[in-house]
Request: fold
Amino acid sequence: MEGLLQSRGGGVALLPAATRPRRRSQLCGQLRASVRGGVRQVVTVDDLRLTRGDAVVGADDHHVVSNGRAPEAGVEVEKLRAVAEAAADRADMHDIIGRQRDNWNHLLLHSTNSLTLAASVMAALAPAASSVVALKASAGVLLATAAVTMAAVNKIQPSQLAEEQRNATRLWRQLERDVRAVLDQKTTPLTKADVQDAMDRVLALDAAYPLPLLPGMLDKFPKTVEPTRWWPRRQLKKKLAQSSKAIINGARRGAIAGNGWTQELEEEMRGIVRVLKAKDEHEYVSNGKLALRLNRGLAVAGPALAGTAAVAAAFIGAGEVGTWASGVAVLGGALAAAVNTVEHGGQVGMVFELFRNVAGFYRKIQEDIEANLDEADVERRENGEVFETKVALLLGRNTSDLGQFREMASPSFKDEDIRDFAGKLF
Reply:
């Protein structure tokens, strides 16, 4: 016998043995012995080795149970941890870049307006000054610089860039929270599908809100206005067999019960999808188109006015034309400063991006609802009561308010009859 463990009055002592090998480092598990009914229990070293195998110890990560999961899930756990760390890093980067681009907007706005107004003052004073050549040259140079600066700033739209980074920061932090919540769940085993879903969300966010300015910047004046998409597109599920379709079409609508789902809840969700598509999303896309048209007009008008003023400044002091040229330079410079202030001081680009993001927010709710409704097996859906609460919170409503959308799921209910918006949050 290699050695004996003897329990005395709750204490534990290891009896010496001549043949026992000195491997104390391998016997570092918890050693327990109990005395029941006054009878001493003897535990052999072999039993202790079995106990050591059950009580997960050691430094080998491949044999450590992560969050109570089986060792084979350790690879998926590490992958999700890497995704969470990447999401946290992305959130920090977008936050820093967003602050930088917001500073650009303020600094470039004030600098350009200062150039334009200073040039306008010089153009006004030039006809009566003795050094007319110096003043008109200075005014022309400043106005030309202002025109080029306006054109460059209008191309990149710093206020819109800052709004992109702010929204990206929020979404990356949301992704990090979601991944860490999955890691904290000890009951559900992790699979490769969980890792792939997280990776798809990372790639979709990278595509929706790129970090580089040039190249890769999002088009600030798109030909068509679409809701922003920062989530992966769901793959169409395989169609069910013909027999399964018959069962679903014939009996499913009257037999939905389980996992928190009822026929009434399905009707509510279908009505919400219809209202979101017909009212909420359409409203913000339309507002986005108006903001885009306004921003495009201002982006062209500002540099054009400043450039016209710069050309007019070159004719100051040239007889009768010089008097008119001075007035055109002053007026053009003042109007250019006013247009620049409205565009970038009012952050019209940011407003356009905000409308697109809100439209995307409502589009995502639609797709989440449709993904649940398209699942024929109610047991594979998200719990109906929990899902209803999530939708109500996203819309800024109480769950009791969602019942009013049930009638709107009927095909007989026309889109023109929908008066109220589904969302109250925005």
Remarks:
- DSSP finds ten helices and five strands in the chain.
